[in-house]
């Protein structure tokens, strides 16, 4: 079996002696796999994401990216944060925000790929606007464009749809799945929304309450492409949703 | 609509100025005294300051010192402030010294500066820079520190170098704060410019005002003071114009935040 794209091995993290966040978190993600991590709110998902991205070092355990460890974020990794409001550079236009995601190529190529990324997130018409002139969903699409413009191998999504309205959330879910499929990106989605996790992922990792550890990994073998209506009406979807929901609820009790 | 309001404000402002000038003229005419000349000689003295020869000999030296001193203060204050605000571990080392120095009345530095540099341009530029650097420095530190931590995470993921983090993330984020500091620094710089020219000088507006006071050329004294006001006004307007351009994004951002609350 090939080296996994991401491998968490016994990762623990505590902010203080009595504030352990992660305890012995272990799971693997294969290339081209869409992984979703769900858990009760406040269980330490964001801390885990910071450990995965090497923005933060775990107290013990190891995070392997393609079999190697990193002190700084691996160059092939990108993140979309929940807080689009604060993750875009407010003093740069949409185009220049996206261009920051792609800095080591010549100007001609960069312009082309930035335009491509903007088209992919349907933001080509807004390239010269500034973040404050965009709606929440558009800001998040801008952040998404910045994350995919470098064609990353691993796209981390930190509750990226949590701060937008329901209709925008559905549109963004479809958009992200579509982009991952077309660019054959591997994505790791952290979310508290069980429907979203089951609908989007190939595998769902369920976390316990704080300190978080892996309770169970559930393979989601629903066929693709998935549809917001028809997929969510299939007995298989309902069954998986039920299973994950039960596990998460057990944790919360 | 907005134009109407602006026009009306302009009318009121002009009316106030005219009223004050009329009051001055009335006082000067009804109570003639050598220390309060009527408007006409003051206006003539003011205009003569703008003649090329006088401008070069009296106004320009002041502007030059202010320009260099204030420029150094803004540059130094910004760069040092950004670095100190970002490199938090430096704080315990630097902070006590800064807090101490900022409370030294800048005027008191004048005799020491005179000893250090002599009665030179360097001394005056130093005094102006010393006086105006602290508001910029403290504002830059504050702005850099209150900056958006998430953008620094983004910068790490995007592989920014230290210089890029400082000048493309921390600096733009701190600019609104820095501009507030620069505006305060400008008024302090103007004061320090005049004061530095009151001691052992032979040109500049401060020197001009002091000498004419001693010669009882009162119209010239008032003309010099009015010229100082003009310089302050023009520089402030220029600063606001720059700020409006550079911080357009910030006004949009803030306007949006206001609209949401």
> Which architecture of the largest domain in chain A does the CATH hierarchy give at level 2?
3-Layer(aba) Sandwich
Coarse morphology of chain B: globular
Number of helices of chain B: 11
- Count, helices of chain A: 9
- How many distinct domains of chain B? 1
What's the pLDDT, averaged over the residues of chain B?
91
Beta fraction of chain B: under 5%
**Unreliable sequence segments of chain A:** none
Average pLDDT number of chain A? 91
CATH fold call of the largest domain in chain A: Rossmann fold
> What structural category do the secondary elements of chain A indicate?
alpha/beta
Radius of gyration of chain B: 23 Å
Question: What name goes with the CATH superfamily of the largest domain in chain A?
Answer: P-loop containing nucleotide triphosphate hydrolases
Annotated CATH homologous superfamily of chain B: MetI-like
What's the SSE blueprint?
The complex is a heterodimer of chains A (253) and B (261).
Chain A (H helix, E strand, L loop, with lengths): L5 E11 L2 E11 L4 E5 L6 H8 L7 E6 L11 E4 L3 H4 L6 H6 L7 H14 L15 H13 L5 E5 L7 H17 L3 E6 L2 H7 L2 E5 L6 E6 L10 H4 L1 H18 L1
Parallel strand pairs in A: 3-7, 3-8, 5-6, 6-7
Antiparallel strand pairs in A: 1-2, 1-4, 8-9
Chain B lengths: L1 H29 L8 H11 L2 H35 L4 H12 L6 H9 L3 H25 L3 H9 L4 H35 L8 H10 L3 H29 L1 H13 L1
Summarize the structure.
The complex is a heterodimer of chains A (253) and B (261). Chain A has helices at 45-52, 84-87, 94-99, 107-120, 136-148, 166-182, 194-200, 230-233, 235-252; strands at residues 6-16, 19-29, 34-38, 60-65, 77-80, 154-158, 186-191, 203-207, 214-219.
